[in-house]
Amino acid sequence: MRRERTDAARNRAKILAAAEAIVAARGVQGLSMAEVAAAAGVGVGTLYRRFGDRSGLAYALIDAREREFQAAFVEGPPPLGPGAEPAERARAFLRALTDRTVEQLDLLLMAETAGPTARFGGAYDAYHAHLVMLIGLARPEADAYCLADALLAPLAAPLLAQRLRGCGVAVERVKSALDELLAGVLAR
């Protein structure tokens, strides 16, 4: 794989920081390629060559956070990372995933509704495999594969957006419900 040039990496970081600031201030709908380019101090052509279009830029924003999140649960400190008991890690994971989803809810909502199976693959597969492993360690006799899907379902961006914004459910309430669901899954 070819390494990214230093100036290209610097531009990418500036572009992503500018795009994050715009999304934080005005939401995904406010994400304009021309504004991002101006805020980052790069040409619009650079932005289009690098990301293709607005959705490519949105996916790059998701990817940057996603890499940080996956590093935290794969190799970070416990309880999210290795070193804690499987049940404790699963609880920390679901709570951190809730925060991670809420943090980029509009971007994830756009990504997860792009097509019928847009939510699945990539990050979902990593989350699913992680939970399958943890459930399998905590309850070897359980159907970890299907139970992992049950634990991830409440964190689908469209459902979470509806509960938080449409129904006024607090994030802590979602986390508490996931704690209860996990306790039921891990009960013998």
Automatic annotation (TrEMBL):
<dbReference type="GO" id="GO:0003700">
    <property type="term" value="F:DNA-binding transcription factor activity"/>
</dbReference>
<dbReference type="InterPro" id="IPR001647">
    <property type="entry name" value="HTH_TetR"/>
</dbReference>
<feature type="DNA-binding region" description="H-T-H motif">
    <location>
        <begin position="32"/>
        <end position="51"/>
    </location>
</feature>
<dbReference type="InterPro" id="IPR050109">
    <property type="entry name" value="HTH-type_TetR-like_transc_reg"/>
</dbReference>
<dbReference type="Pfam" id="PF00440">
    <property type="entry name" value="TetR_N"/>
</dbReference>
<protein>
    <submittedName>
        <fullName>AcrR family transcriptional regulator</fullName>
    </submittedName>
</protein>
<keyword id="KW-0238">DNA-binding</keyword>
<dbReference type="GO" id="GO:0000976">
    <property type="term" value="F:transcription cis-regulatory region binding"/>
</dbReference>
<dbReference type="InterPro" id="IPR009057">
    <property type="entry name" value="Homeodomain-like_sf"/>
</dbReference>
<feature type="domain" description="HTH tetR-type">
    <location>
        <begin position="9"/>
        <end position="69"/>
    </location>
</feature>
